[in-house]
Amino acid sequence: MAKRKEHTQTDAPQQAQTGAGAIPQEAPAPPPLPDLTVRVFPISSSKSKLKATANVNIAGAFAVRGFRIFDSRNGLFVKEPEQSYVKDGTELTRPVFFPVTKEAREALYGQILHSYELTMQQGQRQEDARLSFRDEDVPPEREYAPTPEDLDPEDDLPFDMGPTM
Q1: What is the reported pTM?
Q2: What is the largest CA-CA distance in the chain?
């Protein structure tokens, strides 16, 4: 069993500094957030409120899969990956991964939504580019017709077939 630390003379000055007359110390600054890399996978169904899923790579060391991006009346929002379980006959869920601080949550969700918007803009540009071609812009199709130089029997195969029959 652990022993309780006894009060000694060396503890008294430290306690006096933390009393009412002590100068309040500033809270330590939160650690900087790691680099986040987000991959977004849009959902093609326009009827679904689920717009995309996302995977996040944290500082090149950890990967989290299963973030979901939904569209609601209040705009886009991110939902964390969840695990389902049954308790007393009721199916419940709990988050598998979640940010601990408000700042971390805002940075993570902001990065996911920003990546989603960029992905959708890029997809729209690609769709516009496909639609902008007219028939006269596309080169005419022509069939390949070999020339006599292409039909040289010695150069036909890149390897030796051995004795011919």
Answers
A1: 0.58
A2: 107
How far, CA to CA in Å, does 164 sit from each of 11, 156, 160, 161?
100, 14, 10, 7
CB 25 within 8 A of CB 97: no
Position 33: which residue type?
L
Of the chain, the end-to-end C-alpha distance in Å amounts to: 93
Tens digit of pLDDT per residue, the chain (165 long)? 556 555 555 544 455 455 555 566 777 776 777 888 999 999 887 788 999 999 999 988 999 999 999 998 999 999 999 999 999 999 999 999 888 889 999 999 999 999 999 998 887 777 666 666 555 555 666 666 666 666 665 555 555 556 665
Domains of the chain and any CATH numbers:
32-131 (3.30.1120.40)
Cβ count near 66 (within 10 Å)? 15
